[in-house]
Amino acid sequence: MNKSELIEALAKEKDLPLRKAEEVVSTVFGEMEKALVGGERVEIRGLGSFKVKNYDGYKGRNPKTGEIINVGRKKLPFFKVGKELKERVDIL
Question: Class of 47-92 per CATH?
Answer without folding.
Answer: few secondary structures
